[in-house]
């Protein structure tokens, strides 16, 4: 699972709409407290490469991308370049 952050709430909403219209599975979530980037709203996606390509084509800016790594006690987020 990947977490996409955005520079504004409006950009996050536009991104969700574009991804849903294209048939992607996407979830809206508050920005995890361990991530210090973006507007406070993030999107959860399964395939960040294809998702980001679609968003770029629609002139939607993604601030940062994180991969969620689950273990028995918690979830850690690793920034994707």
Overview of this protein structure:
The protein has two helices and five strands; from the N terminus they run E-H-E-E-H-E-E. By secondary structure, it is of the alpha+beta class. It has one domain (2-80): Alpha-Beta Plaits, CATH 3.30.70. The two termini are 15 Å apart. The mean pLDDT is 89. The relative contact order is 0.29. The chain is globular. The protein has a five-stranded antiparallel β-sheet, covered by helices on one side. 28% of the residues lie in helices and 33% in strands. The chain has helices at residues 9-21, 48-57, and strands spanning 2-5, 26-30, 41-45, 64-70, 75-80.
Summarize the model shown.
The chain has a 5-stranded antiparallel sheet with strand order 2-3-1-4-5, with helices on one face.
- Contiguous helical run count: 2
CATH topology: the name is: Alpha-Beta Plaits
Gross geometry: globular
N-C termini distance:
15 Å
How many DSSP-defined strands? Answer: 5
Average pLDDT value? 89
Gyration radius over CA: 12 Å
Category from helices, strands and their pairing: alpha+beta
Give the percentage of residues in beta strands. Answer: 25-35%
> In this structure, how is the largest beta sheet organized?
5 strands, antiparallel
Return the domain count: 1
Strand order of the largest sheet: 2-3-1-4-5
Q: What are the SSEs and their pairings?
A:
Elements: E1 2-5, H1 9-21, E2 26-30, E3 41-45, H2 48-57, E4 64-70, E5 75-80
Antiparallel strand pairs: 1-3, 1-4, 2-3, 4-5
């Amino acid at each position: 699972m990947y977490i996409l952050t955005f520079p504004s709430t409006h950009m996050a909403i536009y991104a969700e709409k574009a991804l849903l219209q294209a048939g992607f599975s996407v979830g809206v979530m508050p920005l995890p407290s361990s991530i210090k980037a973006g507007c406070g709203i993030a999107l959860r996606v399964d395939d960040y490469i294809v998702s980001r390509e679609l968003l770029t084509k629609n002139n939607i800016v993604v601030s940062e991308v994180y991969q969620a790594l689950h273990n028995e006690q918690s979830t850690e987020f690793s920034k994707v370049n």
